[in-house]
Structure formats: structure tokens, C-alpha cells
Amino acid sequence: MVQIPSQLLSDRAVIVTGGASGIGAATCQLLASHGAKVIVADIQDQEGRQIAADAGGLFVQHDTRDPASWARLLDAGKAAFGTIDGLVAAAGVKGNTTLRSDPDAADFNRTVSVNQLGILLGVQIIGEYMRSQAKGAIVNIASATGMPPAISKDIVYVSTKWAVRGISRVAARDLAPCGVRVNTILPGLVMTPMIAGSIDADAEQFARAKASIPMQRLAEPIEIAHAAAFLLSDMATYVTGAELVVDGGLVA
Ligand SMILES: NC(=O)c1ccc[n+]([C@@H]2O[C@H](COP(=O)([O-])OP(=O)(O)OC[C@H]3O[C@@H](n4cnc5c(N)ncnc54)[C@H](O)[C@@H]3O)[C@@H](O)[C@H]2O)c1
């Protein structure tokens, strides 16, 4: 996939949660190619350090569920780069609960704490910092499963992705008068480690899912990263509260 270096994000410091893998890792690489100073934040230490080294950025080990971890991340980013101009919140986990599963509070808590609480803490802590400096842009990664029709059976995961839409909309309206923009990307199926396990587990179901995508293929992570770069950039100065579906036509 095409990666055209530019100065689109020159000198902007951007935190990318989930930056060690998949969509987050591709976003780190792409933002760096647009001139951004990237702060790779992830629970995975070794992989995160490698991505940060490749992107010429900073790695901060981070647990998106923990308010204190967010405060440390903000401090580390400011100490390194003086300010934080952007946040791409891509940390996420797949759930394991369908309607027919045995009730599983542990799976619920794990999925909701990363995918929903993690997004909420990001807009609260980084959003409030951006409000204080009267500038900034936040991009939250939801999912096309957060749009009708209900295309996934992973009922807890889907509920968290609808929640991301709600959190982003409330934050967008609240922060808009202060010059801070908040937008959401809703990816369709993307070829990342998150779904690699599902492909191995049920190749037939996966083939059916792929065939149901009008473009007849999965997205590459960089195709989601391009959308994030746009939403962070000055090409999107009047875009806030928006939901950008990047799904090869899946929910069309
Ligand atoms: N891959 C897809 O098809 C797809 C589709 C729609 C939406 N998404 C969403 O995109 C985002 C990125 O997913 P991906 O496919 O790149 O997955 P991935 O598994 O490749 O990457 C997720 C990253 O999040 C990190 N992470 C998990 N828990 C964390 C925590 N508590 N604190 C900090 N980091 C944590 C992981 O270590 C990992 O590096 C997720 O929110 C996912 O739900 C993915």
C-alpha cells in the first residue's frame, strides 16, 4: 500500500495507543513519515520499543485501563516533545462472548475495560490537557461492528464499539468550542494479529466474511492509518464528531 512521505503532521507530537501491533503500529509508521513525533503507547514492551525505534519516536509502556498510566503517558510525552497535539486510541481486544455463550463476567470486564474504559480515559485525560492548551485532535478507533447491521456475533465487543461512538460524540461537542477535535474511525475487517487467530480457527467462516465485503478483500492496516492521518491533520480542521467508515463497502 502507498505511503507518501510529507510534512502533513510536521512537528506534531502524537500518542498512539495500541501502537505495538496492527492498526496502531501502521499508524505510528505512517504518522512518522508525515513528520510527526510519535509516542508509541502499549502494554507490550518489546514490540512497542521496536515500533518506536522504527518510527524514530518514544515508547511508553501503558495500560489504557489505568488512569495513573494515562497521567504518566502524558507526562512522558510532554517531557520528550513539550506538548501533545494528537491522540490515536487504537488499543483494543477481541471479546469471546456470543449470545449463546455461558455468562462470563471476566470476559465482559476485560473487553469493556480495554475497549470502552480505555477510550473514555483517553478523552478525559488527554482531552482535558488539550482543552487547557486550546488545541489538539483525537481519533478513536471503533469498528464497523459499531454500525448497523450487526455483522459480528461477538456481543460484548460490539457493545464496546457502539460505546466508542457515544463517548466520541459527547467529547466532540464538549471540546469543540476549545479548538479540540474528536473523531472516530470505524474499520471493517483489517488484516492484523487481532483477527489472525479467527482466520486460523474457522477458515470457512472467514472466507464467507471476506466474500461479504463488496471490495472482496480485507483492509491493510495502513489503509486505516491514512484515515487517522487525515483526521489529525489540517486537512480536517472543520471535521469533529464525525464517524469515518473504512470498510470496503461492508455496511453500505
Ligand atoms: N483488525 C480488525 O479487523 C479490526 C476491525 C475493526 C476495528 N478494529 C479495532 O482496531 C483497534 C486495533 O486493533 P488491531 O486489529 O490492530 O489489533 P492488534 O491486536 O493487532 O493490536 C491491538 C494492540 O492493543 C494493545 N493493547 C491491548 N490491551 C491493551 C491495554 N490494556 N493497554 C494498552 N495497550 C493494549 C495490544 O498489546 C496490541 O498491541 C482495536 O480497537 C480493534 O478493536 C480492528
Radius of gyration: 17 Å
Q: Point out poorly predicted stretches.
A: none
**What molecules are bound to this protein?**
nicotinamide-adenine-dinucleotide
Tell me, briefly, the overall form.
globular
Q: Report the structural category.
A: alpha/beta
Distance between the termini: 23 Å
Strand order of the largest sheet: 3-2-1-4-5-6-7
Task: Tell me the major beta sheet.
Answer: 7 strands, parallel
Number of helices: 8
CATH H-tier superfamily: NAD(P)-binding Rossmann-like Domain
**What is the CATH C-level name?**
Alpha Beta
CATH fold descriptor: Rossmann fold
Number of strands: 7
| Gross CATH architecture | 3-Layer(aba) Sandwich
Summarize the helix and strand pattern as letters: EHEHEHEHEHEHHHE
Helix percentage: 40-55%
Tell me the domain tally: 1
Mean of residue pLDDT values: 95
Fraction of residues in β-strands: 5-15%
Keywords: Oxidoreductase
Family: Belongs to the short-chain dehydrogenases/reductases (SDR) family.
GO molecular function: oxidoreductase activity
Protein name: Putative oxidoreductase
